[in-house]
Amino acid sequence: MQIDSLVTALDLIATFAFAIVGARIAASKGLDYGGIALIAAVASIAGGTLRNLFMGERPPWILHSWLFASIALAVLITVIAKEKKPVGRFLLALDTFGLAVATVSSANFAATNGANFISIVALGLIGGVTGGLLRDVLCQVEPVLLHRETIGTSCFAGALVYAGLDRLDISQGIAAVAAGFVIVLVREISIKFDWHLPKI
Fold it and tell me: Which DSSP symbol is given to 64?
């Protein structure tokens, strides 16, 4: 598989992952079909949109309309299944994969477009967490980002690894795999052992 095809496939899967989690949470809050579709779209494309706008570029969904196919599929599955139970372990794992892809993709986008070290880390973090934050706010639930599962910490650690390896001139492929692995590892460990950042 060529690298472009791999990147496209990963983007589609990550978009679907965020969209299906967003759609499930929207359904659990009793939103109608339109609300479910809106939350799924916001959850899956908001991070990439904000990242691109900060870099002075057009949002990815304008350039790649096929991203909406993943969103539509997620909404369709949610509507047909009529499932309103809380997000299960499988969807959390899928969401973690989405976080890894979104964060690494955003960090790579920033690095490729000449961003400095801090900006690469910041844009990687923004690309990973923005969709989930807006999803929770719109669904009127306490944002997961702000109180549990160290989502922000996972994305920050991964973006930091990517930016560091990029500055050492390590190949993009190795940097992406290493950063993605760190994100998945940190979040999965935090979920398994119920680790959270300290609170006042």
Answer: -
Are residues 97 and 135 in contact, defined by beta-carbon separation less than 8 angstroms?
A: no
Question: What's the rounded Cα separation, in Å, for the pair 9 and 165?
Answer: 24
Give this prediction's pTM.
0.90
Contact 98, 48 (CB under 8 A): no
* pLDDT band at residue 101 under the 50/70/90 scheme: very high
Q: pLDDT by residue (tens digit) across 14-66?
A: 899 999 999 999 999 999 999 999 999 999 999 999 999 999 999 989 988 88
CA distances from 142 to 52, 104, 130 (A): 27, 26, 14
Residue range(s) defining the domain that contains residue 81: 3-192
Neighbours of 31 (CB within 10 A): 17
64: phi then psi, degrees, rounded to nearest 5: -130, 85
Is residue 199 one of the residues assigned to a domain?
Answer: no
